[in-house]
Design brief:
Elements (H helix, E strand, L loop, with lengths): L1 E4 L2 E4 L3 H7 L9 E7 L2 E7 L1 H10 L3 E5 L2 E3 L1 H4 L10 E5 L9 E8 L2 E8 H10 L3 E5 L2 E3 L15 E5 L6
Parallel strand pairs: 3-7, 8-12
Antiparallel strand pairs: 1-2, 3-4, 5-6, 5-7, 8-9, 10-11, 10-12
């Protein structure tokens, strides 16, 4: 139902929509937001303020508006089309992982070849009493492992210590 009042038109809003939009200003435009997180993917409607608050509440969240990465601080003042594509995604964490070394291990169960980091190699060498560590056929102590440059090493072996006697 529409009726004319003082040369301004008036539109009657159904009751079920009145409560949903009560207190919402035109500047509080709702945007379709795709959210990806550890639980999966969801689609919700949010205002710019809500998008900004959500992005700030979860450390490392990336915000994409029309496939462009934007900061949470930019969102409130960003010009966004009504049909803007907005996505909140967990940030990718990168970095340099500790390099691994191919290690031949001989023990009572036989022989195996595994990939280990320096710290794993040190732990394995010190946790098994009497273990010998050979780097390119040179016996090294477990204390030396952290200071060795394995980039040029061609063979690393962990062996049970030999006990002599008669």
């Amino acid at each position: 139902m529409t009726r004319q009042t003082n040369s301004h038109s008036r539109v009657d809003i159904p009751l079920n929509l009145q409560s949903k939009y009560r207190g919402v200003k035109m500047s509080d435009k709702m945007y379709r937001v795709e959210i990806a997180d550890a639980t999966g993917h969801s689609v919700v409607e949010m205002t710019k303020t809500e998008i900004s608050e959500k992005a700030r509440s979860t450390e490392g969240t990336w915000v994409f508006v029309d496939d462009r990465l934007v900061s949470a601080d930019e969102i409130d003042n960003l010009e966004m089309a009504d049909d803007a594509s907005v996505r909140l995604m967990p940030g990718l964490v990168g970095g340099v992982e500790e390099p691994t070394i191919t290690v031949e291990i001989a023990d009572a169960t036989g022989h195996s070849v595994v990939e280990m980091t320096k710290s794993e190699l040190t732990e394995k060498a010190t946790s098994s009493e009497g273990t010998w560590v050979f780097v390119d056929d040179r016996l090294v102590s477990a204390d030396e492992i952290d200071n060795l440059d394995f980039s040029q090493a061609s063979k690393v072996r962990l062996m049970p210590g030999l006990v002599g006697g008669f």
